[in-house]
Amino acid sequence: MSEPLSERPVLHVIVGSIRPGRVGLPVASWFQQHAVDHGAFDARLVDLAEVGLPLYDEPRHPRLGQYEHEHTKRWSRIVAEADAFVFVTPEYNHSYSAPLKNALDYLNREWKDKPAGILSYGGVSAGTRAMVALRPVLAVLGMPTVPTAVNVPFVARFLNAEGEFVPNEATVKGADQMLEELARWAEAMRVVRREGVAAD
Questions:
Q1: Given the DSSP bridges, would you call strands 42-47 and 150-152 parallel, antiparallel or unpaired?
Q2: Is 3 part of any domain?
Q3: So what's the pLDDT on residue 2?
Q4: What is the DSSP letter of 165?
Q5: Choosing a second label site near 139 at 20 to 30 A (CA), which of 40, 103, 162, 182?
């Protein structure tokens, strides 16, 4: 039986909206800092607006890993260094955003065997339809999603005068539970990936 890996796993908190004035950035910034304070992860913020991917433009299927464009190679390196993800997503027309789908479609093996959590936000529905649409896509990419999700209704009410996200007790409790689940899965899946490489 393999010994647990000693280094803290890397968690990427991905901002799934690139719209100017998006609420997702302060929400994701709060969650990233909360994950740092939690202590189980080396938690990093990944903003798709800064990554700047064009619509998918690689000539070969991503499962081959034969990338031609520098933006794809850079994105591949970012995703490959993570052990787990939290996708912070708005709800657009009963689904998640096009930039997030585009970012997921760019890669294949870099996502595999890495657990994911979902933090959705919106109005009365709290982005839950985006979450439901996202889960099967993550499954196809080989990413187990943890049972607990964080869904924030009427998200604008949780922004203070400085535009910072100030969660309520239920959101904090949900975030803590999701982080605990992600930490267990991340440790287990790191072993799975390590043993899979050794078997190749």
A1: unpaired
A2: no
A3: 40
A4: B
A5: 40
With residue 45 as reference, give the H or E element that holds it.
Answer: strand 42-47
Tens of pLDDT, residue by residue over 8-45, are: 999 999 999 999 999 999 999 999 999 999 999 999 99
**Which residues are registered as beta bridge partners of 150?**
119
Is the pTM higher than 0.90? The answer reads yes
CATH number, residue 153: 3.40.50.360
Residue range 141-164: average pLDDT? 98
**Which own/partner pairs from 76-81 qualify as long-range (CB within 8 Å, at least 24 positions apart)?**
76/106, 76/107, 76/110, 78/12, 78/46, 78/51, 79/12, 79/107, 79/110, 79/111, 80/110, 81/10
**Does residue 5 lie in a domain region?**
no
| Interval 164-199: pLDDT, tens | 999 999 999 999 999 999 999 999 999 999 887 655
Please state the domain count of the chain.
1
| 43 domain residue, yes or no | yes
Q: Which residue has the tokens 């027309």?
A: 93
